[in-house]
Amino acid sequence: MNHRNALLAAVLLAASSLATAQYIWIDDKGVKQLSDRPPPPNIPEKRILKAPGKPMFNPYAPADTAPASAEAAPPSATLAERNADFAKRKLETAEAAQRAADQARNKAAQVANCDAARKNQQALDQGIRLTTFDKNGERGYMDDAQREDLRKNTQKVLADCK
């Protein structure tokens, strides 16, 4: 008998919190709140499940009549439509990530190209003899015309680096 009385007392104690609650609502985090005070003003009416003078919300009750206009309440999307929207958003996110990666890669390549052009310009300005290699791999030295062509090309690259 003692165990039965203790179990009965526990059940009555748990149920008493519901009995004293005059207000029941779902908060912003989706947690059911029970209180003897009204919910905060930012809680919409549709999330207030119980209030004095308002019948308890019944999730199994038939839906109210259809809205007066389709603009007032658009029909809910089917599971297939929601899946298609999700797939579309996922694809758009992947494409945006790919574009961002491509831009970062292009930016890194441009920085490396600009650094190489600055080093070439520095070598040209110092008057160092620059070597070239022909198609057979033999080393040669740049003449003045080749140096001037390299200087012009380097100037063009550096103009885009600023």
Automatic annotation (TrEMBL):
Organism: Duganella alba
Keywords: Coiled coil, Signal
Protein name: DUF4124 domain-containing protein
Stretches with biased composition (Basic and acidic residues): 136-152
InterPro entries named in the record: DUF4124
Domain DUF4124 per the UniProt entry, residue ranges: 10-56
Region described as Disordered: 35-75, 136-162
Keyword Ubl conjugation tagged: no
Pfam families linked to this entry: DUF4124
Annotated signal sequence range: 1-21
Coiled-coil features, chain-numbered ranges: 77-107
Record field: compositional bias (Low complexity): 61-75
Source superkingdom: Bacteria
